[in-house]
Amino acid sequence: MTSSFSNLMLAEPLARAVAEMGYETMTPIQAQAIPVVLSGQDVMGAAQTGTGKTAAFSLPLLQRMLKHENASTSPARHPVRALVLLPTRELADQVAQQIKLYAKYTNLRSTVVFGGIDMKPQTLELKKGVEVLVATPGRLLDHIEAKNAVLNQVEYVVLDEADRMLDIGFLPDLQRILSYLPKQRTTLLFSATFSPEIKRLAGSYLQNPVTIEVARPNETASTVEQHFYSVADDDKRRALRQIVRQRGITQAFVFVNSKLGCARLARSLERDGLRTSALHGDKSQDERLKSLAAFKAGEVDLLVCTDVAARGLDIKDVPAVFNFDIPFNAEDYVHRIGRTGRAGASGLAVSFASGGNDARLVADIEKLIKKKIELEPVEFEEDRPRGRINDGRRHWREEGEAGDARDVLDQPRERRDADARRGSGGRPHRAPAAPRDPFFDKPYEPGQPDATPAWEAAAKATTPGRGISSNIKSKRKVAALFKSAEPS
Ligand code: AMP
């Protein structure tokens, strides 16, 4: 099978856009899926984000739609021909941006609709007419009900991250949306796993699909160095700072299991002097997108987030992922650490287990990834606390503490990267004991303007999908999750 885009015979405007993106060879999912989609067959693809699956479905879909391309200003000449459904707004926004780039030299129009923001601008776009509509299910149904979106000319439908859509309870919405589509169409379904539910969904809505699996869904990339540390809850922050410093880590995702944990941890890491943002529930969509942009631009070093907030985000080359909490679902471990070690780059995944339920969760991960997990102790560089200083804000910290982790992160990026490549352990450091901040004794108060620091950009978090823990809540719609349903 060829892996060069030039052998694909893509139409010139698409080939030009691809060349401009700097793509030369196809990724495995692209090499397998593009010819199949071009031939008009249904596809059931097991591929995670980061594998290039957006281009794998978008490019052939756009190529097949070029026959409808026209420059007319009449909305009637631009009915929705392709529908891409995704579970979260961030993911929808990201996929829509990519499709716009691939279609930029064509007259094909695309737009995205998702909840949490005003419907009016979306309505205006829809009324002008678009060939490609990217959407989250709940908001799409709102537009269908308002008669802003008519789907009776759809030829292609893509169900992306289908497993997550089912996990968060979108099945009824999907069934309704699919009932509005013509029977004659091409359907593509992408999922990280082929669970019995996914197979049932495929059985109902796909016709003789070609199955494409590029990597076993439970595999973790061999380029990711994985460590599990046994560390008490109170020491986790300190352990994180030490590892960041010792490894010269320039940027990292820090995963937690709850919205409350997310807000609090981001707040304390920020106070430790690390440039930190939180992706969780109580902020506007706009703030959440800004937070992501800041992380992508390197203006933020640590992105503390929950699983739904981070799922599928196209943020590449993150040198490290921390599991500050062991995920409730072993599959989320695979998704989380898939943020690092992409495209052959080496990555580091560090998980903190603190006893209690964690032993069982670690055992679940071990079973899923089929690798023996050794719990390592954290050896703190020095346990002796030093004098305490008031940092002029509203809490006490140990002398020298705020500066230490930041010292690494404040260095020019090239230098930090070079240090990391050399395996520099950083300069000797005297780690203090973690300070106690009265903030942490207060009950959580979501949505209070003065309780929310400016850096706390937010997205929505998830309830984990399967009932392996009493902490796991029942399945809910994303719309509900985005109100106040995150675990807290
Ligand atoms: P995805 O899995 O679709 O989220 O894609 C992950 C990232 O890989 C995106 O930033 C794409 O722009 C990039 N990408 C997709 N296909 C290729 C390719 N053939 N060569 C290089 N980068 C690619």
Written account of the structure:
The chain has helices at 12-21, 28-38, 53-65, 89-102, 119-128, 137-145, 162-167, 171-179, 196-205, 236-247, 259-271, 285-296, 307-310, 330-337, 358-369, 401-410, 413-422, 478-481; strands at residues 43-46, 82-85, 110-113, 132-135, 156-159, 186-191, 210-213, 224-230, 252-255, 276-279, 302-305, 320-323, 347-353, 375-377, 388-390, 396-398. It is globular, with a radius of gyration of 23 Å. Helix 5 links the parallel strand 3 (110-113) and strand 4. 36% of the residues lie in helices and 14% in strands. Mean pLDDT is 77; it is low at 383-488. The protein has 2 domains: 5-213, 3-Layer(aba) Sandwich (Rossmann fold); 224-381, P-loop containing nucleotide triphosphate hydrolases (Rossmann fold). It starts with 11 loop residues before the first helix and ends in a 7-residue tail after the last helix. The chain contains 18 helices and 16 strands. It has 488 residues and is of the alpha/beta class. The structure holds adenosine monophosphate. The site of adenosine monophosphate (AMP) has 13 residues, from helix 3.
